[in-house]
């Protein structure tokens, strides 16, 4: 494996652990795709640093289990904003 890919995988895992970040947030931060983040953490990092991969996996699993809640909150916020905009308009 190329050195920069290994280094990126380690940096990604550290970022996820430090900021409790989602795959989407991490991908945006590093300017890469969500699938690359996922592959770096679940496949590449396991070979490089299994302990770090395990720690990152805990955060990713937690985020995955909570995503339906965040999605519902985002939808609720969207419609509250829409409702407030309509009330101000009329």
Automatic annotation (TrEMBL):
Alphabetical UniProt keywords: DNA-binding, Transcription, Transcription regulation
The UniProt record lists the keyword Transcription: yes
Top-level taxon of origin: Bacteria
InterPro entries registered for this protein in UniProt: Spore_III_D (IPR014208), Tscrpt_reg_HTH_DeoR_CS (IPR018356)
GO MF terms, alphabetically ordered: DNA binding; DNA-binding transcription factor activity
Keyword check for Transcription: yes
Protein name: Putative DeoR family transcriptional regulator, stage III sporulation protein D
């Amino acid at each position: 494996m190329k050195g920069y890919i290994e280094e990126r995988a380690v940096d990604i895992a550290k970022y996820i652990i430090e900021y409790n970040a989602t795959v989407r947030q991490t991908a945006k931060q590093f300017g890469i795709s969500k699938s690359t983040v996922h592959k770096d953490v679940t496949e590449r990092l396991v070979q490089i640093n299994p302990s770090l991969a395990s720690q990152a996996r805990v955060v990713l699993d937690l985020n995955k289990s909570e995503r339906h809640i965040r999605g519902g909150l985002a939808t609720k916020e969207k419609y509250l904003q829409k409702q407030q905009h309509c009330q101000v308009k009329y």
